[in-house]
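TICKET #2291
ISSUE: user wants both folds in one file
ATTACHMENT 1:
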Amino acid sequence: MTTAAALFAARGYEGTSVDDLVTATGIHRGSLYTVFGSKRSLHLTALRNHLGREILPTTAAVATLTDPAQALTTAIASYDNGPAAGFLLMAAVERAPHDPEVATLVTNAITALEDALRPSHGEAAPHIASTVLGARLRLRAQPSTPKEH
């Protein structure tokens, strides 16, 4: 599931073909359809798994922090340098506007981050969560440039 999540995070739903998923996961096309039924179903399963394995542990760690600076630093590091935000943001931008199930999962993940920031930031938590995720989205939008040697 993490391989599928990584593909969807890097290429998006539309940019990831069933052939890409078959090649990356090593699961035969027939098995993929037998288990998941469709690419959409695999995407939803991978997103649910991603929330459980990446987003919720990240938000749980942030929720234990009451110092605002420490909570913000941890949230930024988790979302900017870690795997938590990539798939979530791609799903939010690409699929949530058209898929109510994806929209619900994305909303749940964002609410979890907001709730995790409440002990340290109180009523400003939704704004801080938006800032953390917006900064990550901005980083993803920057083109990568080859390094000069």
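ATTACHMENT 2:
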Amino acid sequence: MSELELLTQSLARNVKHWRSVRGFTLDVLAARAGVSRGMLIQIEQARTNPSIGTVVKIGDALGVSVTTLLDYERGPQVRVVPAEQAVRLWHTEAGSYNRLLAGTEAPGPLEMWDWRLMPGERSPSDPHPAGTVELVHVTAGELTLTVDGVQHLVPAGASATFEASTSHTYGNDGHEPMEMVMAVSVPPVH
């Protein structure tokens, strides 16, 4: 089975599981996530490979991390994720990408990401649920972080934290690749 097939089946199983745990009908989850009921049916039947944006919306609506939705290996309390198992969810032809390194539920979803943006590229993000916090640490280049329309420059070696419940964009306006590690903490669903 290919990695994509494994992820598609894991997503199907985990969306069904967490929808059941939360007591959500397909219609309730569709409304909370802002995706169609038909899309959810296709996801739960492992008949589609949705965009990362759709997976993030479903995770936010369920109050679980993307890692939890894509997890196909439930292990002991200590979970080591080998480099080759980090999931690349987004990339461009120029070489920009993000990789989901690890995640957990503590008490809400907590994710750690590895990002690379090539010069001139941007990655916009829709607002996350109220209370979501993101932390970034730039390891190379300079990040142009735009939060709620305001740009902030974050050079290599610097870190930033912000409430991610408004639109935000990660950009590289420099001349060299920008690399950062990012943590995302989403509050639990009540």
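RESOLUTION: both attachments delivered.
EXTRA DETAIL ON ATTACHMENT 2: The mean pLDDT is 87.
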